[in-house]
Amino acid sequence: MVISSIDLKDGHVVQLKNGKDLVLQRDDADNLIAEFNRYGEVAVIDLDAAMRNTDEKGNTKNTELLKSLLRKGNIRVGGGIRTVKKARELISLGAEKVIIGSAAWNADRKDGEPILNTEFLEELCKAIGKQRVIISVDAINGKIAVKGWAETANISMIDGAKEAEKYASELLFTCVEKEGCMQGTNLDMVKELREAVKCRVVAAGGVSSQEEICTLESMGCDVQLGMALYTGAVKLDESFIECLDWKKTYGMVPVIAQSPAGEVLMMGYATKAAFKKTFDTGKLTFYSRTRDTLWTKGETSGHFLELVKVRADCDRDTVLATVIPNGGTCHTGSWTCFGSDPDEKSSMERLYSTIKDRFANPKPGSYTATLNDKRVREKVMEEAEELTEAESKEDVIWEAADVLYFISVLMYKEGVTWQDIYNELDKRHKEK
Q: Mind spelling out the 3-state secondary structure of 37-60?
């Protein structure tokens, strides 16, 4: 599968040739991450941090932009991560994984000294877990590249990779001499790496065609892609489709649809044509085995499933589609095909959505629509006091529901979502 790359330099999205020469520059990072995350993971790289272009606090011109992107998708982040403290901070801000480059290597080692900075890596794995660590085995002419690819260490890429996988869930290999050249990567070197280690391998540097992506996929490698995406040489929707295991699934891949809150709604099958229509229309489309035709969920009832993102499983033979349902999903009228309830399951998101609708489309007699800023704050305080005075379980339930309702109204008025609250709680959890 393709991992899209957003490289940041001087506050802009850039693409460089061989990590040095500027080829293109853009300022639409939010649009890019929204598009890229639809089809898979996204790598955000701070090139200035990698080159040590930082201020006294360790920040770069990209710092605020990078932080703003970390909760907008399934993000892995890299560039100049040299301390455990920095790695923990990035994880707490929303990064799923961190990419460790130069800091992983004992670049100036003498004969007999370890290849890796084992003390740092052991502390890192203890702090955030091995599953959150990616180590770069970037290479120039087969030697590990360090210090923003400005130098090479006297460490062979294969020897380094064998040691590095002890401290990482995956390895990122960039063929530096091919990076940004759009001339293909070094497939022989990738193959050698794939055969040398057991962990996940992501290849980057020079990949320029869908054919090459499929070749790497058949080798058991993912691809981190930059230049080929920005120039239009490779299209993410086509890559997603072609990387699925069509032989194993006999041309029909199972697709599980779930709501943004994680509730499973339905399961169906999709052909290549069905996926293409899903991506073209933004509405989840399946292949009907009984009618031998494509069908878009909701084309009769109007209860469409609006696509948010798709993710393939580890075997590439099943797809999880996150969708926004417009009404009941099941043909029986139920919210989900795995239950009989016609309504969406209660959640904070559902409550918030209802409150949002009441203010946007006030109905006669709507209590919610009458709540101004002052009144809602008074009610939060009033209901919180009643909650603290509740003595029975039933009273606690009743008063807690009131508190959550008024808190949700206050949040809506201040432009705060429940996801913002979850993010803050997640951040606090990861900092402990």
A: CCCCCEEEEEHHHHCCCCCCCCCC
**Is residue 191 scored above 70 in pLDDT?**
yes
For residues 174 and 157, what is the distance between their CA atoms, to the nearest angstrom?
10
Residue 144: pLDDT above 90?
no
Residues 229/231/232/238 CA torsion (nearest 10 deg): -20
The amino acid at 404? L
Strand 97-100 relative to strand 75-78, pairing:
parallel
- Band (422; pLDDT cuts 50, 70, 90): confident
Q: What pTM was computed for the model?
A: 0.84
Of the residues 46, 48, 138, 222, only one is catalytic, namely 138
At 239, the amino acid letter reads S
Average pLDDT over residues 96-109: 88
Task: Single out the catalytic residue among 7, 46, 48, 222.
Answer: 7
DSSP 346-391: P-HHHHHHHHHHHHHS--TT-SGGG--HHHHHHHHHHHHHHHHH--
E-strand spans in 249-408? 253-258, 264-270, 285-288, 293-296, 305-312, 319-325
Contact assessment for residue 90 and residue 98, using Cβ atoms and an 8 Å cutoff: yes
Q: Is 192 exposed, middle or buried (0-12, 13-18, 19+ CB in 10 A)?
A: middle
User: For 290-335, what is each residue's pLDDT tens digit?
Assistant: 999 999 999 988 999 999 999 999 999 999 999 999 988 988 888 8
Q: Based on the residue annotation, tell me whether 237 is a catalytic residue of this protein.
A: no
Cα angle: 356, vertex 341, 331; to 5 degrees: 100
280 is an active site residue? no
